[in-house]
Predict the 3D structure of the following.
Amino acid sequence: MVPGMTPVFCTIVPPHVLDQLARAEDPRLSGPARRTLQRDAFERTQRRLTTVIGAAAVAPPTGAESGKPNRTIYDARHRTTLPGKKVRAEGEEPGRDATVNRAYAGLGATYELFLSAFARDSIDGSGLPLDATVHYEEDYNNAFWNGEQMVFGDGDGEIFLDFTIPVDVIGHELAHGVTQYTANLAYFGQSGALNESLSDVFGSLIKQYTLGQTATEADWLIGAGLLAPRVTGTALRSMKEPGTAYDDDVLGKDPQPATMDDYVHTGRDNGGVHINSGIPNHAFYLAATALGGHAWERAGRVWYDVLTGGELHEDALFTDFATLTVKAARARYGEGDELTAVSKAWEQVGVRTL
């Protein structure tokens, strides 16, 4: 662990969604949700202990080429011991397990976006090996970055499907690692919502890059394909229209706000980190679509400059981040369309820039 760096336990499914499921009358829905909440609480505690006692040093890549990914996929075999049994190493051919193959491909897609668009060699910028464990627990309804590796559940099949299906889920969680190695945003309140938003931004960019989509062509959904057929919804979150991703009898309604007018003040979910992230998410969508073309080329570049520029404090508020994006747009592109698009995007969501 890098000195001064706090490993954060970050899940793709927010606690408020699992809380809702845990109250369902149908034990097929409530049982897996309750077990997932219990497991998440345990893993979260483990991260806090790691912060106190320090994490084991990550061994440098052996035989890995600079500018090439170094992926290893493990199978937990529905247990919780990490990392599990090694089932695929870098360069090995696909096997019969589609989940393993999707995890391997998703790690590669994430690596490729950061290298190609931002000249970043893995999530730490220095070729960090990318490890992932699949088939975690029984009916585990989440995926997470634990400060050291990726972990994917298979879902319960009732509400959630396999968590390796959406490539943006894989990218989202690995992007938490990028944040961990750069701005290290505190996982609470507005800084935590920025942490979550940055993962959604880069997760969406990875999906768009993989599909070759422009900002106009993209669906701007996070986790499309993850919800089971019985769920009334399209994804976990929408950057285009926060608050519209799902409206379901069991899950409830997507609570994300799109602007500061609807900012949610709550003590749950670390101060609403998965809820209020809708506001900076929407700002990025507005900036990217105003500019057009590939979103990773200009809007994504500005966001990445802020994340890695050294001026973003751990306890940053929305207005701090917004101000830095305006500064970064001006520094990189001058008084052009990029500056206008970024400035107007924050104005539209009600976040003031200084």
